[in-house]
Amino acid sequence: MRARTILTLLLIAGGMSAQVRDSIATNKVYQGFSGGMMLHAGYQFGQDKNAPTTDGRSTSPQGATFGIGGALRVHLWKHLRTGFEGYVSTMPSETTDSHNILQPGSYIRTGCGGLLADCCWRMEKAWPYIGGTIGGGSMKGLYIIEGDQNSWGQDANSTFHKQSFFYVTPYAGCDYCLTRKVHLTFRLDWMLAFHKGRLTVPTGPRLYFGFMFCH
Q: Of 25, 51, 170, 178, most Cβ neighbours within 10 A?
């Protein structure tokens, strides 16, 4: 009888110990990390009052933008993820000018990087998330009014402009778990860049597609 009692107590203690260990593991701060690369495409628009003009017509940058970037996140507690990311987006000349002023070779290129934080819900196959990024970057614009990128001549009418900015980017997305360590991720964002208190254009939504590797 005494042996049975001791055995029962040991089994109960072992079960309680396992529950405590599982609880500690579930509630621990560090839950791993993830990182990867993503391609993106979007549509940007906006009238830049400082853009070059000719014959009374001003450029109106708008159209498709394409780029690449990456992100690295540390997973904390149950839902929080934080880290940093960086991207480069380029709007080529073929899509930047609704008034047909800009010549081939013109472009608007944006590079940025910053700190991110998001809230992620870890389901069996899908990890939806919502968050934002804060950071800085620069926008470069080459406006060729006469000539083009294939000309070796000296272009009399072209402008190159570069400006830095501070930005905030809200985003939402979802990871699809291909395996425990490989996720297919989709994300939609809208970068709001500011220079001297003024919203920098062009601006618009971007859709991301890529792979994240979890550890």
A: 51
